[in-house]
Known about the structure:
Layout: H1 17-39, H2 42-45, H3 75-83, E1 89-90, E2 97-99, E3 102-103, E4 110-111, E5 117-121, H4 125-130, H5 138-145, E6 154-158, H6 159-165, H7 181-194, H8 201-217
Antiparallel strand pairs: 1-2, 3-4, 5-6
Helix pairs in contact: 1-8, 7-8
Amino acid sequence: MARRTRARPAPRPARLPRARGRRWLRRARGVGLVAVALSGVWGLRQADVFYPVEQPYSRGLYDHWVDADGDCQDTRHEVLIRDSTARVRLTADGCRVVGGRWIDPYSGRVITDPSALDVDHLVPLAEAHRSGADRWSADRRRAFANDLSSPLTLLPVGASANRSKADGDPLAWMPGDPTRWCAYTRAWMAVKTRWGLDRDLLERWWTDGVLWVCRAVG
Length: 218
């Protein structure tokens, strides 16, 4: 008599990235409600009473877009050359980028016209000033404003996203796509840690909360 064997259960289908994205969005919405409440105080957080600085912020304190190595390409164009995913096209004198291919880390959009890009200080200069750079020497400010030693400090991004971000921290502005929040927040914290910049209490709560969700989703 033939021996009966128990049928094996069908293998469970692999989890699709889209399902994971939905789970992330559900949790991100919860964290987002907290952000809405906290960001209501953003204007107050920028006041001198919360950020007593040694001297008022001025963009002129941060000498940026310099040609540190004397090759005629300033910091902006060095970043465009570094981050292009295709060979860049330069002006006849080799000093300026006029073509290439960039992926905006804030939106995922592909951009081929460098005039549509801003080179963003991931931690804005004004935010750095409020976070301890007001006590820096002129040389250290210049180094931060032109930092090419890390791929995180300066990023080529779509001009509209950069201008909507302005000088906000992650509590005031995050990429429009919540699935990019994890990478953005990790990069933000990495730059602040690397340069010894402070995070205020609400900023810590928010960034730590985002990264808690990132770890929970896995």
